[in-house]
Every structure is written in C-alpha cells, then in structure tokens.
C-alpha cells in the first residue's frame, strides 16, 4: 500500500483478483496471496489520554517511517473535547498520507470528517456506520479471537477485521488471546485485510506478519519507547521488512 490508508490498500489488492470460485480454493488463494498481498504495515493507536504536546509526538513518530493508519483512541473523554483535540492531529495525518481513524464513535467520525471509524462489538453496527459515513469511509471491526465475528464483520461491509489481543498488554483489559494461525486462516480465505493488535512490539511483530496480518496495530510500544516514537516506528518498519 502507498501511504494513502486502508481503502487504497484494499482497492489496490482487489483489482486483479480472479472470480469467486477461485478465491475460495485455499491452495490457489494461498499462492495468489503470496504473490499479491502487500507487506504488513503499521497502524498506530493513540495513548488513551493525550496532552497538548501529543501532536509533536505523532509528528516524531511519522519521522520514523511510513504509518498506514492512525487511530484516535481517547477513553473516558467527552466527545466535544476529543473533537477539539483531534483537529491538529487530523491535519498532520492528512499531510503524512496516513488514514485518520476515530475509535468507538461513528457520530464523532462524521462530525470531524475522519477517514473512518473503528467499532468494537458494542460500538454499533458497521452497516449504520456505512450509511452515515459513506462509501469511502474506512470501517474496522474488533473480532477478538473469533472467525465467526470476522465473517460477520465482512458481511456487514467492514474494510478490515481486527484480531487480538495477541500478547499481554497494559493498555487495555483484554479477555481474548487468538493464535497467530487465525491470521493465516483469514488471509487464505478472504481478501479483506486483517489487523493484529495487543501488546505488539518491534520484537514480537514478526510472527504475526509472517502468519498473514496485513497490519499490526500498536500503542504502548510506540509511545513508551525509551528512544522516542520515531525510534519505535523505525524499528517496526525494519522488523516488518524482514
Ligand atoms: C485496530 C483496533 N482493534 C481493536 C480495537 C479494540 O476496540 P474495542 O473492542 O471497541 O475496544 P476499545 O478500543 O474501544 O477499548 C481497537 N480500538 N482498534
Ligand atoms: C485497544 C486494544 N484492543 C485490543 C483487542 O484485543 O481488541 S488490545 C488493545 C490495546 C492495544 O495497545 P497496545 O499496543 O499498547 O497493547
Ligand atoms: Mg470500542
């Protein structure tokens, strides 16, 4: 994918796909995907709370290398305050060619003109998000460790499915621990991109990319990196290129 976001990634991938029968043949799909699927890329998740200096931290992260998408994930904060905080961050993402995704709220995504929204299982129906945000919006859905939820999300028109938490994380209380093989299963059968999330670092992202993740999402390992977010992004980009 270029740095244009998840939507570009999807259309770039699907242009030359064969017909549905061939797509469902796992052997063929596996060989096809091996040739066609772009390398795994980085999806940044904000810290759960930010201050006025966060825009500079994000700019520093972008200095480290290409970032496909950025999710504004602020928890327990009033939407008016999130909207106000979002503006400079959103502009920076646009300048960097990075998709700007709002967590949890399709209404907020609409209000501020975000590139898309990430919906958990309790955050609303992807069909409603599509109706509200339109055909170009990038809609992601949390699927935990569930093949069933992922197929439902695909049916509902999601642009990506997210599996996690692959590793222990202190960013969020998590109850699900998928095996990396779910990423391979998904990528073999479906063209829709997958995002792997949860405790992912430059040191442990390799097996998830190798298993078939199209994106790895990371928060703590980037914002808490001892050498700064640019060093973290640089290390992710190097690890994902291997
Ligand atoms: C890319 C991505 N994947 C999963 C999540 C988790 O969403 P959700 O289950 O709604 O939990 P919260 O993030 O809202 O606490 C995500 N945000 N992004
Ligand atoms: C927001 C989120 N969702 C998860 C899931 O499993 O759905 S894990 C997670 C936390 C991601 O942050 P970190 O990279 O610091 O672990
Ligand atoms: Mg949510």
Short descriptors:
binds magnesium ion; single chain; 12 helices; 8 strands; 242 residues; alpha/beta; disordered N terminus; binds the ligand Cc1nc(C(=O)O)sc1CCOP(=O)(O)O; 8-stranded parallel beta barrel
Main β sheet profile: 8 strands, parallel, barrel
CATH fold-level name:
TIM Barrel
Q: In one word, what is the shape?
A: globular
Strand order of the largest sheet: 1-2-3-4-5-6-7-8
CATH class: Alpha Beta
Low-confidence region ranges: 1-26
Named CATH architecture: Alpha-Beta Barrel
Keywords: Magnesium, Metal-binding, Thiamine biosynthesis, Transferase
Family: Belongs to the thiamine-phosphate synthase family.
Organism: Sphingomonas jatrophae
GO cellular component, one term: cytoplasm
What does this molecule look like?
With 242 residues, the chain is α/β, with parallel strands linked by helices. The protein contains twelve helices and eight strands. The chain has a single domain, classed as TIM Barrel, CATH 3.20.20. Helices cover 45% and strands 15% of the residues. The chain has an eight-stranded parallel barrel, surrounded by six helices. Helix 5 links the parallel strand 2 and strand 3. Helix 6 packs parallel to helix 7. The N terminus is likely disordered. The site of magnesium ion (MG) has 4 residues, from loops.
